[in-house]
Design brief:
By secondary structure, the chain is an alpha+beta fold. Helix content is 48%, strand content 16%. It has a 4-stranded antiparallel β-sheet. Strands 7-8-9 form a 3-stranded antiparallel β-sheet, covered by helices on one side.
Length: 243
């Protein structure tokens, strides 16, 4: 059993992050159990035990270069005090032309302004529904009155969409995906690129892989694997955008 520093290999490191990465992605798409915890021990117990001991008794250059960061007790206390907050700072708050601010919490929202800094807090169960149109969020109360409207920005749009999704989860009102909200698209628009990836690009990439095996071209095979990996990544992105 080897003890000490592992011999660095640039070739293996480069291969693991390029061609091997795409091969693993293909295997995961075909075999749902590939890469899962414990599968290596089931297939080859001897090799699995050897690898565990090997990684415990040896170390690489990465272990010498990158040192673990020390956690600060002050940051820990601060995070506990803000655990009910969505994590927005003043630059990320939702604002409008009336100089009103909207601060988002887990179960409530608070509207503030320069004149009334203490603000007005309302729980989420007192909100009727939320609309997002042209990068503007509209929040209505149970009486149908507009409680607040403000502009979406790159910093606050994720948290605004979380609030939008949480309030409109009963499907009583028109629902847009995050992709449609951030790109200012009509409802159902994000399903089109997903269909393109599933029914056009994915079959084409599989056909290219089979063709590369027939003509026996390593270069063409690598290009086909990269194209397939891009399509799998695109399907995952657009599928998550619909949730």
């Amino acid at each position: 059993m080897k003890v000490g520093m592992r011999k660095p290999s640039i070739k293996k490191s480069f291969k693991a992050r390029t061609t091997s990465q795409y091969k693993r992605a293909i295997k995961r798409s075909v075999n749902p159990f590939y890469g899962k915890r414990g599968m290596g021990f089931i297939r080859n117990p001897k090799k699995s035990i050897y690898n565990k001991i090997y990684h415990k008794t040896t170390f690489g250059l990465k272990d010498l270069i990158y040192l673990p960061k020390k956690s600060s007790h002050k940051n820990y206390v601060k995070n506990n005090s803000d655990k009910n907050d969505y994590g927005l700072n003043w630059k990320e708050l939702v604002t409008n032309e009336k100089k009103e601010y909207l601060k988002l919490y887990k179960d409530s929202i608070m509207k503030m302004s320069d004149e009334f800094f203490n603000g007005y807090k309302i729980s989420l169960d007192k909100i009727s529904h939320i609309e997002i149109d042209n990068k503007v969020i509209y929040i209505y109360d149970l009486d149908g009155n507009l409680f607040f409207h403000g502009n979406l920005t790159e910093k606050n749009q994720k948290n605004c969409y979380r609030l939008y999704k949480k309030v409109n989860k009963k499907d009583l009102y028109p629902y847009k995906s995050y992709y449609e909200v951030t790109n200012n698209l009509p409802e159902g628009k994000s399903k089109r690129p997903l269909k393109l990836f599933k029914f056009v690009n994915l079959p084409l990439s599989i056909f290219l892989i089979l063709l590369s095996q027939i003509i026996n071209s390593p270069f063409f095979s690598t290009i086909s694997l990269i194209f397939l990996a891009i399509n799998i990544y695109g399907i995952r992105i657009h599928t998550s955008s619909l949730k």
